[in-house]
Amino acid sequence: MRSTSPFLRPDERLDEVNERIRLIQKRHGLTFGTDAYLLAAFIRPQPYAQAVELGSGCGIISLLLCAKDKLRTVTAVEVQPSFAELTARNAALNGYSDRIRVLNADLRRLTADHPGGEVNLVFANPPYLKADSGMPNRAAEKDIARHEVCGGIRDFCAAASRLLRTGGRFACVFRAERLADLFGAMRANRLEPKRMVMVHSDADSPPCLVLTECVKDAAPSLRVLPALMLYHRRSSAESRRTLTAQAEAIYQTCSFPDAGKYR
Questions:
Q1: In this structure, is residue 178 part of a structural domain?
Q2: Which structural domain, as residue segments, surrounds residue 195?
């Protein structure tokens, strides 16, 4: 039976993500968004897999994957002690303490010994902004979550490569404008891109996100999925945007149309 809600601190709120997940979030901290949910949907089921999440934040991606039984266990790695503790409380709140183990550690120093051996799957929603770009956030926690302060995309890919067994998979969501940086970091660390989809706000907008899955020590061969449009074009008479049928299905099922067994 799932545990009851723990005591909320003054700077926190309790949100209901869906019928299976409740989530404690910091009122003034970085909250989960579309990118986290899309990554959880993009990851294909490996129900017996042991996985590692790099940079867990509040733990929402690991929670979604466990709730959908897409994997067996996760070691959620988080460098910030306050967010590592938050991930642990969210795992307990939703009854997944036996499947989500939290590790407060710097991914730049991770080895395969930390999760207890090489794993099948690593996933991440890494910081999108370079350390010296954009406006700094007043809250240091947000700055670390959004900027490459505690590791850039090459550090995330290097950590994934160290943790994965040969043939293991690394899935991540990243800024579309930094696709060259992403692919360069993957290939520099023996991670070959195998599946990718560009995400657009609507048909009139350039891609804003890219979802990528790569395989350690694989041969080159990239499958590019049809682009995902999140919203219909909004007319001047419409007060709010509506999801496309494809996006609605992804949100309802937490999976992409090409989901299935690995080949």
A1: yes
A2: 34-253
Number of domains in the chain: 1
For the stretch 138-155, pLDDT in tens is 555 544 445 445 679 999
| pTM metric for this prediction | 0.89
Q: Flag whether pLDDT at 134 surpasses 60.
A: no
| CATH code (residue 40) | 3.40.50.150
Task: Say if 8 falls within a structural domain.
Answer: no
Quick: pLDDT tens for 32-42.
Answer: 789 999 999 99
148 in a structural domain: yes
Q: What is the DSSP string of the chain?
A: -PPPPPPPPTTEEEEE-SSS-EEEEETTSPPP-HHHHHHHHHSPP-TT-EEEEES-TTSHHHHHHHHTTS-SEEEEEESSHHHHHHHHHHHHHTT-TTTEEEEE--GGG--TTTTTS-EEEEEE----B-TTSSPPPSSHHHHHHHBTTS--HHHHHHHHHHHEEEEEEEEEEEEGGGHHHHHHHHHHTTEEEEEEEEEESSTTS-EEEEEEEEEETPPS--EEPPPEE-BPPPPTT-SS--B-HHHHHHHHHTS-TT-----
The tokens for 133 are 């770009």
Q: Is residue 244 part of a domain?
A: yes
